[in-house]
Task: structure prediction
Amino acid sequence: MQWMRQVGLLALAVALSALVTRPAGADELRIGFLAPVSGPLAQIAKDMVDGFRMYLDDHKGDFHGATIKLIVADTQAKPAAAVLQAQKLIKQNHVNMLIGGVLASTGYALAPISTREKVLYIASVPASDNLTQRDAHDYPYFVRTGWTSSQPNHPFGEWACQNGIKKVVTIAADYAFGYEQVGGFQKTFEACGGQIVQKMWPPIGTVDYSPYISSIKQDADAVFVLPVGAGMLNLTRQLQASGIVPRMHLIGSGATFDEFVLPNMGDEVIGAYSALQYSAAIETPENEAFVKEFRKRFGKVPGYFAESNYTTAMLIDAVMQQTNGKWPGAEAFIKTLTALKVDAPRGPVSFDDMRNPVQNIYIRQVEKKKMFGDSKAELWNVVVKTEPHVSQFWSFNKAEYLKQPVYDRNYPPCKFCK
Amino acid sequence: MSRQLKILAVLALLIAVVVVTPHTTPFLLMLATRILILAILAMSLDVLLGFTGIASLGHAAFLGLGAYLTAILAVRYHFGLGWDFWLVVLFGILLGAATAAVFALFALRARGVYFLMITLALSQCVWGLAYRWDSLTGGDNGLNLPGRPMLGPISLGNDTAYFYLVFGFFAASLVLLYIFVESPFGRSLVGIREHEVRMSILGYNVWLHKYIAFIVSGAFAGLAGVLWAHVSSEVSPEDVTLTTSVDALLMVVLGGPGTLLGGVLGAVIVLFLREYLSTLVPWWPYVLGGVYVATISYLPDGLLGALMQRGRILAAGVTPAPESVQPPNRAKKLEVNEGGVS
Result:
């Protein structure tokens, strides 16, 4: 009796999945969108899907003749679940491409599938450097439309040094995302004459930062922060409570002050500097329209998770324009995509030969002000300086840069830490 | 149902699964492969939880060690991608058993909730190693395996071939574990579960029995780890987190502890709800949570336990007394033990 039930369940499942599986139509572009819809990153997933859908809805699901079929799959922020969903999207839903993922581990789990199955994977968020650097030749079907972790921090390090910051203490989350951002900052900051005098690596999800704060070297003049996880709002609060801020400059990763958390932060972050390829406060007509429309639909200011996926949709649309709505195959699609140049909300976006965006990097400062005709003063990442056309290799020689190891906990070594 | 009939029913079910699954959709085939692997893990845990009566919150560690061993050998030494895959299977089982042998030395000093905490702590150590030993494990990024093994002309990269392989390991594990728990040794484990003091007074070395049960459990969990590494061709610290241990525990509790097949049923339900329902609706976690709560509140012996109880009552033609909370399978096994004593 029991096995009959199980067989019945199986039969039901087969029937259900038969409903889901339909052969891809001639002018249908099938997109598998992988996002951590459930779990700790659910809010980020919502921003990602909202960003992509907004562009899609603006164009009524039609990219120059190609009808877009968007299938959102839940990765649960687990690489193994992401792999299963990706395989399902490829083998059962016959998608033309995969988009998304958040964590580097998800990006690294999905990239080999794209190689094995010869399916395009557009990483709109995962930022780990090597996917488009030292490992790029392993993943020919991988294209990034977001950023590499070190990309905004190269110009940021140089800018900080040129603007009077001499000695910096870093407090960054203890994993590759933290290492690569601090590493990028350190490389250019020290090349220009600055000194990183102390590096601290609290684990992801640290809630109480006071042990780290109490050991900050007092002769530093700035503290670089990149907290990740449940307690990420506490670090800046505790820095202010301890008096370190405003005595020292507060600087940090662009992700730390991104608009997806900024509304939850208090006035302690006013004045903080960071760098990223996007800020909701970029004063261009494209961005103003984007921010206003996003706010109207979803009741919040878009951050880079939303912008990156909006721009990804825009890029796909631009490719479809050139192919008259026909799917050209993954190789040709990548060729066309990486030769494009579009004006996104973040500014002009093109690609380097390792399939990573070349884009503006904005040095931003948090200010409380009214923007885009809104009546209430809020926190915004006001652009202080625009560094145009920044590639993942910044001003370095690409071949030499790729010879150095990827930024790590101990690389570059901390010469001034003692 | 008599014992022979039960075995026949399970056999028929297994044959149905192995015949039908490859003809369903690719997704169901991949899902079934994962279910079978996690079913091995759940069954290995059931040896401890259901038969010996000790709940471990650290089974992700053995799974993780098997998986990382497979990944590290494949990535760093290109080992285990041909016929030497069978050696990796052997190493995975041995590593699981050896680690369990070490862990048990610490964990078996305690019982109940303290045992739970020690196993949890030890498995977190393994997670810490996976997360922080960058040079070996790839840290948070995890490790990507170069692909599944080639066994002569058969490529396990083919999902159907890999399903058959996993099914083979699953069936073998089921048979071996069934023989194990039905053996006199397995019976003495049930005796320990029911009355530890009595067993030790009778002259059984209770500690040694538990120790061996723990090692056997670790060995099968290690096997599950080797298979798990190849299922998605990647291993990450996420596989070793507490969530994986809790999942295994819930699968056993959901299906019915002390039944072996209960863990399998639990694995089917949990993975099906999580991976299949999640493709249909965003509120799937509520369904899974509801199933857990309902099972624990209304079917404390798990789904299979409740079914078996029902079947037995129907066969006997009597209605159950409302206050009879003693699960019949336990009562029966206790009788056997006491029968042996008197």
In short: Residues 135 and 304 of chain B are 45 Å apart (CA to CA). The interface with chain A takes residues 9, 12-13, 16, 20, 24-28, 30-31, 34, 131, 134, 138-142, 144, 147, 157, 159, 228, 231-234, 236-239, 268, 272, 274-276, 278-279, 282, 284-285, 304, 307 of chain B (CB under 8 Å). Chain B is about 75% helix and 0% strand. Chain B has one domain: 23-341.
